Amino acid sequence: MTVLTPTPTAVASAPAASLTAGKLPRWTPWALLGGSLAVSAAVFGVAAIGTSLADFNIAGTVIIGLLLYMVLITVISSIVESRRKAVDRLMTALVATAFLIALLPLISLLWTVVSNGIERFDAEFFSYSMRNVIGDGGGIVHAIWGTLLITLTATVIAVPIGLMTSIYLVEYGRGKIAKAITFFVDVMTGIPSIVAGLFIYAVFALIFKPGISMGIMGALALAVLMTPVVVRGSEELLKIVPNELREASYALGVPKWLTILKVVLPTSIAGITTSVMLAISRVIGETAPLLLTAGFTQSLNTNIFNGQMMTLPVFAYNQYMNQGTNPDASLARAWAAALTLILIVMVLNLLARLVAKLFAPKTSGR
């Protein structure tokens, strides 16, 4: 008896993407982009013959190359694929180009600050002040202490006020009073920083004497700028807390104030922390209000209620505007102060993310 063995059936393999398959290969956009940039570079290179390498127009090369790429990808995609797919690829190219355009100034800024500020990143710079320093040397320990103390004091003042205001607007506020508060918060969001400094200076000049400068005045000026940012950010985050959570708490007999404290705030703590960090980042680099209120000094002062205090933005401004006997040393200190300020903001943002992750409500994953 003969046994019939089944013959193996041929497994149909997916056709490889090609110019005749109705779909462009994955490498095609990258190849077109590289070719467009190469053609653009060749054109600008020919135009720059006889000049130095520094005269080569890099920005023009990139712009013309991207425009050429958009034209090529749209035409080729409409021929091989479809008109709808061609429009999709064109929109993708436009969005990616807009992203790169928005990213280039940030990269250029970071590169400029790091390349110019790394020169003075040494132990002396972070352990000495500018007291009795005229030329080389000196440091920013007094400016770092001033920035941290003034910003911390402003945060302690602004965050409770802003957070309680947002809780009132979301949980209790109704009618004309809530609308008036919202209107004035929106107005305060757009006031220039110099106005906040002038306001605090005028108040203290009336109470004490004209010409007074203290660290607490700078903290109050920054608090005026921080408060509306905290209010608007926290308000939007409290609004997105589901009402079902509040109703479930009320059904268990929990009073409203305890529901806000134990349910609403823990649910939105991650977003509230982010809004607070945005407010801190908004004010930590302010210079104009601190020039009017906190003043500047070359010595270390950790008492915000007595005497002038130096901050990093004011230090950078002062070093650039008053270069003294050694302009190169002053400019190096100014760039290093700017780099230090960026690093402080980065560390604060990382800490805020860590706090938000630790205190965010835990969800049971399956």
UniProtKB/TrEMBL annotation:
Boundaries of every ABC transmembrane type-1 domain copy: 144-352
Pfam families assigned to the protein according to its UniProt record, in alphabetical order: BPD_transp_1 (PF00528)
Transmembrane segments: 30-50, 56-80, 92-114, 143-169, 181-206, 212-231, 263-284, 334-356
Membrane topology annotation: Multi-pass membrane protein
Keywords tagged on the record: Cell membrane, Membrane, Phosphate transport, Transmembrane, Transmembrane helix, Transport
Location, primary (coarse class): membrane
Cross-referenced InterPro entries: MetI-like, MetI-like_sf, Phosphate_PstA, Phosphate_transprt_permease
Cell compartments where the protein resides: Cell membrane
NCBIfam families tied to this protein: 3a0107s02c
Known function: Part of the binding-protein-dependent transport system for phosphate; probably responsible for the translocation of the substrate across the membrane.
Similarity field: Belongs to the binding-protein-dependent transport system permease family. CysTW subfamily.
Protein name: Phosphate transport system permease protein PstA
Organism name: Microbacterium galbinum
